[in-house]
Inverse folding.
């Protein structure tokens, strides 16, 4: 049992259901405890009672008498506690104006304490800009500190923080070049032809920050090395340059083959690798053949890709470090929760809806889930996850029962054409039940038919 105490300058008990949801989803054996806002900082962070970590939710605007002195006292309490267990201070969005300087001071001073981390209010807003942070009461009652979406966002920030304590961050990042670092195929259009919009630069800033923090960055391309090298050297808008790249994985090998070689070359475990990909077929191959690798599929649109990367929780954790290991069963496929969270649990409204459903009947129906086994099944599941809500959980899920319609079916067919190079027969669309298992089988049959026709074997 990993005991975490959550304390704050406002009522924190409403976080209980949100944190319970995340514990169940991620299979954590965590006991959440909540402190009262009227306690002193020393009481908040009292050591010696078996607590394995503290999260402090602070709003300097709640300390009107002498906020500067309150910050000093909080930092000293953090310093005393951080010697025995990790402490995180989350500066929460405040309804009080003109507190930015106080918030910045708190973040800077906490970040300088060994064993402590600080998350700024700006970072919280950046992760969850959709949250309604301050909502006045309309029935004459005393307003709660935050509406449900605000508490959902803060609870998720707490969960992200604790995940960094429990689970080591990846020791190496492997990013696909085309579709992740830039728009366009470097091998076809060369350095002048690829585009690097601002959203791609935001993603590159994240990668460069991790390189500077000591996390190696490798690049993967299905094309030739020369085209990518030229872009890295010559493109004026690129932030990721050759000096930041530990290895360029290029040539005819698939992503799984390259990662096996990379693992052997650097003595890495495959579970040390985070793969950021734009091609659902490549990500699916990794899911099927190297499930130890954490793989995140990013959307084709640059803005959407940057937004999804912001919710890649493994990038929150320090490389190769965890404060403690959770007890209980580990997830069978690390990539699944990462993709699921970044795709369908990335906004406060999504989280509120998921917590409400969990509160009603937990994660019902998991016994009926048939997981993807083949690379094609994984690929179809990834494509559906970007089109449908709710996303698929089982290969027996039906397209139309997951909000699919004729327009989404046309979009899906276009993706099949683009990524697999085949046209599905009309009979598949109108005579089958349109489950992932049936669609994947139809794709594989069509690929075999194309191969036979090409080889003129029929």
């Amino acid at each position: 049992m990993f005991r975490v105490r959550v304390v704050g300058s406002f009522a924190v008990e409403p976080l209980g259901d949100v944190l319970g949801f995340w514990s169940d989803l991620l299979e954590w054996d965590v006991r959440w405890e909540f402190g009262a806002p009227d306690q002193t900082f020393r009481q908040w962070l009292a050591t010696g009672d078996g607590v394995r970590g503290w999260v402090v939710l602070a709003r300097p605007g709640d300390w009107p008498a002498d906020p500067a002195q309150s910050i000093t006292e909080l930092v000293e309490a953090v310093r005393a506690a951080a010697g025995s267990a990790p402490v995180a201070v989350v500066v929460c969005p405040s309804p009080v104006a003109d507190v930015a300087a106080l918030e910045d001071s708190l973040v800077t001073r906490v970040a300088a304490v060994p064993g402590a981390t600080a998350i700024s209010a700006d970072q919280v807003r950046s992760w969850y800009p959709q949250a309604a942070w301050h909502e006045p009461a309309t029935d004459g009652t005393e307003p709660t500190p935050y509406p449900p979406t605000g508490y959902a966002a803060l609870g998720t920030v707490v969960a992200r923080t604790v995940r960094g304590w429990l689970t080591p961050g990846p020791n190496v990042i492997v990013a696909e070049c085309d579709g992740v670092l830039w728009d366009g195929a470097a091998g076809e259009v060369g350095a002048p032809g690829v585009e690097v919009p601002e959203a791609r630069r935001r993603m590159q800033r994240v990668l460069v920050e991790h390189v500077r923090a000591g996390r190696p960055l490798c690049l993967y391309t299905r094309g030739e090395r020369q085209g990518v090298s030229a872009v890295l050297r010559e493109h004026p808008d690129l932030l990721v340059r050759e000096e930041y790249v530990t290895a360029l994985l290029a040539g005819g090998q698939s992503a799984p083959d390259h990662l096996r070689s990379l693992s052997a070359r650097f003595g890495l475990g495959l579970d040390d690798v985070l793969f950021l990909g734009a091609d659902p077929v490549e990500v699916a191959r990794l899911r099927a053949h190297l499930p130890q690798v954490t793989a995140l599929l990013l959307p084709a649109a640059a803005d959407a890709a940057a937004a999804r990367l912001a919710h890649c929780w493994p990038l929150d954790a320090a490389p190769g470090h965890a404060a403690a290991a959770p007890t209980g069963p580990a997830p069978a496929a690390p990539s699944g929760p990462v993709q699921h969270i970044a795709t369908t649990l990335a906004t406060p409204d999504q989280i509120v809806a998921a917590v409400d459903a969990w509160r009603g009947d937990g994660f019902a129906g998991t016994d009926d889930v048939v997981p993807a086994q083949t690379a094609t099944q994984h690929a179809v599941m990834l494509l559906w996850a970007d089109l449908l809500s709710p996303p698929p959980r089982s290969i027996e899920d039906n397209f139309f029962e997951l909000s699919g319609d004729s327009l989404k079916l046309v979009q899906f067919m276009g993706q099949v054409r683009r990524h697999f190079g085949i046209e599905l027969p009309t009979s598949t669309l109108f005579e089958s039940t349109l489950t992932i298992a049936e669609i994947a089988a139809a794709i594989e049959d069509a690929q075999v038919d194309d191969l036979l026709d090409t080889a003129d074997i029929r």
